[in-house]
Structure formats: C-alpha cells, structure tokens
Amino acid sequence: MEEVKEYLQQKKLEMHQYKKKLADYKERISNASEADRATMQKTYDYYLKRYTLQEKQHDKISANYIKAKKAFSQHNRKMRQSIGATTFKIILKDSTELQANLIKLSPKFDLALLKLSGNYKTPFLKNTTQFTQGMDVYAIGSPLGFKDYVSKGIIMGQEKGHIVTDAQILPGNSGGPLVTTDGIAIGINTAVYRADGTIGSEVFGYAIPTSMIEREFAKELH
Predict the structure, then answer these.
(1) Which residues contact 186 (CB under 8 A, 6 or more apart)?
(2) Rounded to 5 degrees, what angle do the CA atoms 52, 56, 60 make?
(3) Per-domain residue ranges for the chain?
(4) pLDDT tens across 93-131, in order?
(5) What are phi and psi of 211, to 5 degrees?
(6) Which CATH code for domain 125-221?
(7) What would you report as the CA-atom Rg of the chain, rounded to the nearest whole angstrom?
(8) The overall pTM is greater than 0.85
C-alpha cells in the first residue's frame, strides 16, 4: 500500500510538470511564425495524447488504490476484532465441526496457530522444506466464497524468502496450503504479487515456506 501511495504521489508530480510544459509549448506555438506552427502543433498534439493516456492510467490506478485501501482498512478492523477471540469453530472437508483454541497470533505473517479441543485426531498434511523451481504445485482454499477449491501452477522462484507461484491465488485462498503433486505441504498461500508494482492485474502468488512458519511458531510446536 505504501509503495503504491508513493508511486501515485510521484506520478502526480510528474503529471503536473508534464502539464506545465504542455502549456508553455502551446504558448510558444501562438508566438511562432506561421511556417512553424503546423509542425509545432503536430508535436503538441502527440504529447497531449500521451499526457491524456497517462492521466487516464493514473486515475484508474488511483481509483483501485482507494478501493484497496478501504478493503485493507476493513481487514485490519476484522483482525482487531479477531484478536479478542480465543476460541474458533473449525469446519472440516466432510463438514465435521470442531472447536479450537488460539495458541498464538503472528502479525508478521498474518497467521494464527490453533489447537483442536478434545481428543479428536484430524487427518493432516505432511510438510517439507524441500522444493525446486519449476515444480508443479496446487493452491488449496476457499476463494470468493467457494468452499475447498484447487488451482494448479508451478514454482516460479523465490522472492525475499517467499515462494512465488503462478497458481491462481484469489481472496479466500490465503491461509490455505500450497502442496506438491504428492499432497505434501510446502507453504501457506498468503498474498498476490503485481508485476508492474501497481494495483492492476494480479499475476503471481506468494506463499510462506513451511521453514519460515516452523521458525515463527518454534516454541509452540515443540
């Protein structure tokens, strides 16, 4: 959010300077000789068109930023509300409902460690810290209100310790596992990376590797 805010502020400044130069050039046209005006007008029209296109792009990104900022604010409000909760209802794939207690919150990774109440032993995924670039993976979650959906992709690489995948990650996939073709978890889906650094097309998905998760909850898991 901060990066986009800085981008918009910088772009707004550039657009202001661009507009001023256009105004200065237009004044030069009015003072130019009749022989030069036609050529200068074509140049002005060309750069005015470029300015108009950039202005539309800026307005579009700005509108998306405002929407994202509002959604981010709502997310933070829900997070603050959830911090006060210590028990949660867990719904398994077969619709079995269980209760779980909060063990620890991780604001750093936007994760929570829960422990099931009672003696129920739920099936679980094995996990590994071993993965390679180009490996086939599946992102599992409940995107856009749909329960238990899967998207397929490959591991494209790593960025700042996170796994980068082209498996589609939509709102609701966050928190779900990123698994190999053998069903072994290598990370938790967490975010989306936009290739142009601005709010626009969502291209790549981020997942937190299991090694980072184990370090974050090391004391509680052992």
Answers:
(1) 127, 128, 129, 130, 131, 137, 163, 178, 179, 180, 207, 209, 210
(2) 170
(3) 2-81, 125-221
(4) 888 889 999 999 898 888 889 998 888 777 889 999 999
(5) -65, -40
(6) 2.40.10.10
(7) 25
(8) no
